[in-house]
Specification:
This protein is α/β, with parallel strands linked by helices. 47% of the residues lie in helices and 17% in strands. It starts with 6 loop residues before the first strand and ends with a helix. It comes from Candidatus Methylobacter oryzae.
């Protein structure tokens, strides 16, 4: 039938999975958006073969492609073919030749993306600004459409065991991020962080010998340095090294862990200063200090010894770094923690910080007024 109709022809490799044939091919990026469609978003979820597109994700993925035209990486897209297909092997004299051939698809067939719809949409957006990428290819795994129920099951199965790597591990392997590069460098060279950084997990167990996570240090660095400052790796690492080693001198528990006088678990259990929110708040304080050149950095930071970092000090930290005795990572809590540190150091608040502080004080003063 297809000989009398127009058709698509893909070089392909045939395989067997769960007793059914499937095919692997390559598709030029410029044709990807023309061939593969997304299921109708206006349909109810039970009548679609996949989830709706999260449009907020698309520009970020598109920027990744455009910003890294020589070393971006994409995994294969999985699609179902709803239509007539035929596979012609290049020979039958051996198994390898039997598996290799051409996949011919009726041009009236419909391609449904089971996995990779965000990649497909991002590629379409990236080609608008960088059309020269159109001749590059992406791997596509084709399955034969067995109806809506089968497509829905494929989506569920493809995403069933997908686990996103931890933030720390992602940063450990991310060599494009300048902040990640600085964080890894500090973890190796700084006497404050050396041997105390957890690089695979973004949370620490009670028995962990590490005091900080790589993701927490990374966030602290992004609070402290602007993107322009991070462009100069040497200057950025020098500034961070100076600042965090001065911080380390004022927090004796960090030194006790390095000297094996306390365990990392004991410090994390009893104090808040090794948690991500406090590191971020300290990074924000550092940014303010370096912008205020007339201040003596060492003299100001020496006042950190006056801070009671104990979890039991609920008068200072409840509602700021902690909510109900548990550490909180919200942006508002980071600001409130930063405000308390700046108060002890004798530093002024920015207008934004003052607004957050006023709101916090107005809420937390109500119980006092009602007594």
């Amino acid at each position: 039938m297809m000989k009398n109709n127009f058709s698509y022809v893909f070089p392909a490799i045939r395989g067997i999975q769960a007793g059914r044939e499937y095919y692997i091919s390559m598709c030029p990026l410029r044709l990807l958006t023309k061939l593969f469609v997304f299921d109708n978003e206006e349909l109810m979820p039970e009548l679609r073969a996949q989830r709706t597109i999260n449009k907020a994700r698309i520009p970020e993925i598109a920027r990744y492609i455009v910003s890294n035209p020589t070393n971006y990486t994409f995994s294969a897209i999985t699609a179902s073919i709803d239509g007539t297909v035929a596979f012609d092997s290049i020979g039958s004299d051996n198994l390898a030749n039997f598996r290799m051939g051409t996949l011919t698809v009726d041009m009236n067939a419909k391609f449904i993306v089971n996995d990779g719809q965000h990649r497909r949409a991002a590629i379409e957006q990236a080609l608008q600004s960088t059309p020269e990428l159109g001749d590059e290819t992406i791997a596509v795994v084709f399955f034969l459409d067995r109806g809506l129920e089968r497509c829905q099951q494929m989506f569920a199965d493809l995403n069933r065991y997908a686990v996103k790597p931890s933030s720390s591990l992602g940063l450990l392997y991310d060599h494009r991020s300048t902040a990640a590069n600085v964080a890894r460098h500090l973890g190796i060279t700084s006497k404050v962080f050396r041997n105390l950084i957890e690089t695979e997990r973004s949370s620490l167990s009670e028995r962990s010998r590490k005091l900080f996570t790589l993701s927490a240090l990374h966030f602290a660095i992004t609070e402290m340095l602007s993107e322009k400052e991070l462009e100069d790796f040497s200057a950025a690492t020098k500034k961070c090294q100076e600042f965090w080693e001065l911080i380390g001198e004022q927090i004796p528990e960090w030194t006790f862990v390095r000297e094996s006088k306390m365990t990392a678990g004991e410090v994390r259990q009893d104090f808040i200063h090794s948690h991500a929110i406090v590191l971020q708040a300290l990074g924000r304080v550092g940014k303010f200090l370096y912008q205020t050149e007339q201040l003596d950095l060492r003299e100001v930071l020496s006042k950190l010894r006056n801070i009671d970092w104990s979890r039991k000090n609920s008068a200072s930290w409840e509602g700021r770094a902690m909510i109900g005795g548990r550490m909180s990572k919200s942006s508002q809590n980071i600001t409130l923690t930063c405000n308390e540190i700046k108060r002890v150091l004798g530093l002024s608040l920015t207008l934004e910080e003052q607004d957050v502080e006023n709101t916090f004080l107005s809420v937390h003063s109500i119980p006092e007024q009602s007594k």
